[in-house]
Amino acid sequence: VARRLRDVGEHGWIARLLGTVPRGPRVVVGPGDDAAAIRPPRGALLLTTDTLVEGSHFQAGWEPPARLGRRAFRINLSDVAAMGGRPLAALVAIEAPPDLPVAILDGLMRGVIADARTHGVDVVGGNLAAAPRLAVTLTLVGVASRRPVTRTGARPGDDVWVTGTVGGGGAAVRALLAGHRTRRPPVPVRLEASRLLAPVAHAMIDVSDGLMQDLGHICRASGVAAAVDAGRVPVAAACRRALGVEAVPFAVTAGEDYELLLTASPRQRARLERIAPRLGCALSRIGRIEAGRPAVRLLDAGGRVLPLRRAGFDHFRRR
Ligand SMILES: [Mg+2]
C-alpha cells in the first residue's frame, strides 16, 4: 500500500528530507531552524521565485515527480541566468493534498536536490502545507558579480539573438493536452551561455511565455520596437514535424522554451560568432531593435508582417 502524506505527517516527512539536502560552506544555518542564514556573496544578490501548480502548469502523470522537481528548479535557474548571474541557494515551498503518496514528494525533492548539487546550489529551507492540489514554489538566490543584465538596455540598431531552439516545449504541451503520450523536453540550463553572453548583452530575458511576448517585454522596458525575421527563428525539430507550415508562428508564441533572448550591438557580431561554439547550445541572430513605439513584428522573407493570433502565454487570459 502506498504511504500517504497523512500517514507520515509534515514533520516526519521534513525530518527525513533534511539529511539529504546539499549544504556548502556558505551556509551558516541550514534548513530546520526558523530561517536559514548564508554568508552574503560579493556583488548584487539576485532573488527570484516561480511556482508550478497542478492543473495549471502540469497535469498528474505528465512526467515523473523527479522531472517535475527538476523543472521547478530550472525555471528559476533560467531567471538567474537571464540576469547574468549564478545560483547560490534555494528554498522550496510545497503544497500537497494529505492523500498524496509520499513517493511523489520524495521524487519531486530528489529532482530538486540532484539539480541543486549539479549546479552547486545549497537547499537551505522550505515549507510544506496542506492544500487541495499539488504545487511547488521554488525561490532561488543568486549573485551577479557584474551589473545585472536587465530588460531595459536595448537600443535601436541592436541585433536580437536567441540561444537554442524554440517551440519544442510548446509542441509537447500541445500534444499532451490533445491526449498524446509524449514528454516535455527538460528545461535547458543556460548558465554557461549566460556567463559568456552577459558581458556583450545590452538587454536579456529568458523566453518563458513566448518569444514575441518576451521580446515585447524588452521593448516596453527599453522604449524601443523590434522586428523578427521568421526565416531566422530556430524552431525545434519536434515543433516543425508537428506543426508544419504553422511551426514558426506557433514556436514564437508558445512559451516553455527557457532560452536566453538578448540584444547586442551589431559591432559585437564577430565576437558573438567566436564565442558561440562554447555556449553549449546554438546561437541565432533573429532580428533587430528599431526606434519606435514598443511593438514586435514578425516578418516573412519579403519583409511583410505575418499576422499572429496571440503574442504568448498569459495565465489570466484564455488561450
Ligand atoms: Mg524570466
Q: Could you characterize the architecture of this molecule?
A:
The protein is an alpha+beta fold. It is 31% helix and 24% strand. The chain has ten helices and twelve strands. It has helices at residues 5-8, 10-18, 65-82, 102-118, 168-177, 191-197, 211-222, 237-243, 247-254, 269-275; strands at 27-29, 37-38, 44-53, 86-96, 122-130, 135-144, 159-163, 203-207, 225-229, 259-264, 283-290, 296-299. The strands form three sheets. Strands 8-10-7-11-9-12 form a six-stranded mixed beta sheet. A four-stranded mixed beta sheet has the order 3-6-4-5, with helices on one face. Helix 4 (102-118) links the parallel strand 4 and strand 5 (122-130). Helix 3 (65-82) runs parallel beside helix 6. The radius of gyration is 20 Å and the shape is globular. The relative contact order is 0.16.
Question: SSE layout and pairings?
Answer:
Layout: H1 5-8, H2 10-18, E1 27-29, E2 37-38, E3 44-53, H3 65-82, E4 86-96, H4 102-118, E5 122-130, E6 135-144, E7 159-163, H5 168-177, H6 191-197, E8 203-207, H7 211-222, E9 225-229, H8 237-243, H9 247-254, E10 259-264, H10 269-275, E11 283-290, E12 296-299
Helix pairs in contact: 3-4, 3-6, 5-8, 8-9
The structure holds magnesium ion.
